[in-house]
Design brief:
The complex is a heterodimer of chains A (about 300) and B (about 260). By secondary structure, chain A is of the alpha/beta class. Helices cover about 35% and strands about 30% of the residues of chain A. Chain A is built from eleven helices and 14 strands. Chain A is elongated. In chain B, helix 3 crosses helix 6 and helix 11 runs antiparallel to helix 12. The two termini of chain B are about 25 Å apart. Classes of the chains: A alpha/beta (about 300), B mainly alpha (about 260). Chains A and B meet through helix 1, helix 2, strand 6 and helix 3 of A and helix 1, helix 5 and helix 12 of B.
């Protein structure tokens, strides 16, 4: 994972006085899965549309494979593809017809074989004669992914690729994406509202808020920036515990015999030592460490810790 | 330019025609209705005049020739709209397809559909009225090409507005071509137009073609000059219309094609 196959420099988009994307710079390496995250209106879709050349940047530079997108558009888009939950394919076409048109647009050799393989991979081969408007939302998401992989893309932009999929199918899709990355070094730019999925899939995350990059790191490192964990303790001798927590000024929420304490992750060992030394026995414990979702929620609320 | 991508777009619009009854009716139903209504009206009026055969010939040829222009522009504008209706515009323009290839594809598509419509209309005119539309002989070739180019020029002008302003101006796809109808003098000579309209008709390429049509029906001859002028005007308008479409497309990209789906 060394070659930068997509480089974005100072990408900016202004709509009148409103700046939707503000001097965004990032890169994507060969075989890397990069998450593009942020709350609604952060500038994710605007960025993706500029990367696909359906929206002209106000200024900034987009280079794929070392070539400028504006100057080498057709040549570049032959090696790139995308899927989004917000688009469709011609709704009266059968799935086979729709895919055939796109296979020809991408000039795929042996298109029938490629279409058959992908339909089978995404488990929609039985729908090939069905019209697009007759298939379910989940099947449509798989159809769009089939279209997105038709041209053996080296870079694929995936906007909510598993939205509206059943969990078992979503797992299969993720496995497929990982396999494509491993076997063919396909690079992916990935947006999703499923933070578990992002943590599982992405090597690195670019976090956008109000059009600006506010963080860029590995998912686990972003999660670490949230310092609080939640500790849940089941304590039968609750009066003893209540006295201890009051004395030590530890804030808690109590629901019958369950105490919920939000403390800094590094203070958890101290809490446990305190309980042991004061002979407060707990029957069960669970520690909820912060995840990417917590980071996302903090950012969305504009309270970055 | 890639021939494969041009053919792929033609396949795409062929599938739309096959699946969409609206589009089938545009190809067959409306030309048939026009020929029935105006043909019968023509027959009635022809019975009242001395030159009955000429009157009916002018009407029927006018209908069929206008189909050429209308059909050529309609394929461009409605195929663009179909990408928006299908939420497929972004898919198409994030593929390697070049704008020049799309332009070529819809011109080709317009040409093919126009040929089908004209053959169909010609056959109907013959069956219903025993009118041999092919009496124009080889003159039909430049006449049809000229009318087709006018249709393309109107089509790209309207498509430029649609791609820029979206579906709120989609009505132009059906109405845009009719702007030139009064000045084209399809069913009447240019000389009966008010003088200011006659001046306008001088810059409308179809007016020369319909004048030539009437000349051929009445005398059996066609003035080459009229055909040449119509081609010269068409060449200019086609160039300007494609430039307008490209400008509209570029302006639209500044706002994002994604907003149009």
């Amino acid at each position: 994972m060394s070659n930068k196959i997509l480089e974005v420099k100072n990408l900016t988009k202004k709509f009148g006085k409103f700046t939707a994307v503000d001097r965004v710079s990032f890169s994507l390496r060969e075989g890397e899965i990069l998450g593009l995250l942020g709350p609604n209106g952060a500038g994710k879709t605007t960025t993706i549309h500029m990367l696909l050349d359906v929206l002209t940047p106000t200024f900034g530079e987009i280079n794929y494979f070392g070539k400028n997108l504006t100057d080498h558009r057709s040549e570049i888009l032959k090696r790139v593809n995308f899927s989004s939950a917000y688009i469709s394919l011609p709704w009266l076409f059968t799935i086979e017809e729709a895919l055939t048109v796109f296979a020809e647009l991408y000039e795929i050799p042996n298109k029938k074989k490629r279409i058959d393989k992908l339909l089978s991979e995404f488990e929609i081969e039985h729908l090939r004669k069905k019209q697009v408007y007759k298939i379910s939302a989940g099947e449509k998401a798989r159809l769009l992914l089939t279209k997105a992989f038709l041209n053996y893309p080296e870079i694929i932009l995936l906007d909510e690729p598993t939205a509206s999929l059943d969990p078992d199918i979503a797992v299969k899709i993720r496995e497929f994406l990982k396999r494509e990355r491993k076997e063919y070094k396909v690079s992916m730019l990935f947006t999703s509202h499923n933070m578990n999925e992002v943590e599982e899939m992405c090597d690195r995350i670019v976090f956008l808020n109000k059009g600006k990059i506010i963080a860029e790191d590995k998912p686990e490192n972003l999660a670490k920036q949230i310092s609080d964990s939640e500790v849940e303790l089941l304590i039968e001798e609750d009066e003893k515990a209540t006295r201890l927590f009051t004395r030590e000024k530890i804030t808690y929420l109590k629901d019958r015999n369950i105490f919920r304490i939000t403390i800094k992750t590094i203070e958890i060992p101290h809490l446990l030592t305190l309980l042991t030394s004061n002979e407060v026995e707990f029957q069960d414990i669970s520690i909820n460490k912060p995840g990417l979702e917590d980071y996302f929620l903090k950012i969305s609320k504009g309270v970055k810790k | 330019m890639s021939i494969r991508r041009i053919l792929a777009m033609n396949r795409r619009y062929f599938y739309t025609l096959v699946h969409n009854y609206d589009r089938l009716s545009d190809s067959i139903y409306w030309p048939l209705m026009d020929l029935l209504i105006w043909g019968l009206t023509g027959l009635y009026f022809a019975g009242l005049s001395e030159n009955s055969e000429q009157t009916i010939a002018v009407l029927l040829t006018g209908i069929i020739f206008w189909i050429v222009t209308w059909r050529s522009q309609y394929e461009i504008t409605v195929n663009l709209l179909s990408e928006m209706w299908d939420r497929n515009l972004v898919n198409i323009f994030t593929s390697p397809l070049k704008l020049s290839e799309w332009i070529t594809a819809v011109m080709l598509q317009g040409g093919v559909k126009m040929t089908i419509s004209i053959l169909f209309s010609g056959a109907i005119a013959f069956i219903l009225y025993k009118y041999a539309f092919f009496q124009f002989g080889l003159w039909l070739i430049p006449i049809i090409i000229s009318l087709c180019i006018t249709g393309w020029a109107i089509g790209f002008s309207v498509a430029g507005l649609i791609i820029r302003y979206g579906q709120k101006v989609q009505t132009l796809a059906w109405t845009g071509a009719y702007v030139i109808v009064p000045f084209s003098a399809i069913y009447y000579p240019v000389s009966i137009l008010p003088s200011w309209a006659q001046e306008v008709s001088k810059i409308v390429p179809t007016s020369y073609i319909f004048e030539a049509m009437r000349q051929h029906i009445s005398s059996g001859h066609i003035s080459l000059e009229k055909i040449v002028v119509s081609f010269a005007l068409n060449a200019l308008y086609l160039l300007l219309s494609i430039l307008l479409f490209i400008y509209g497309f570029r302006e639209s990209k500044k706002h994002g094609l994604g907003r149009l789906i």
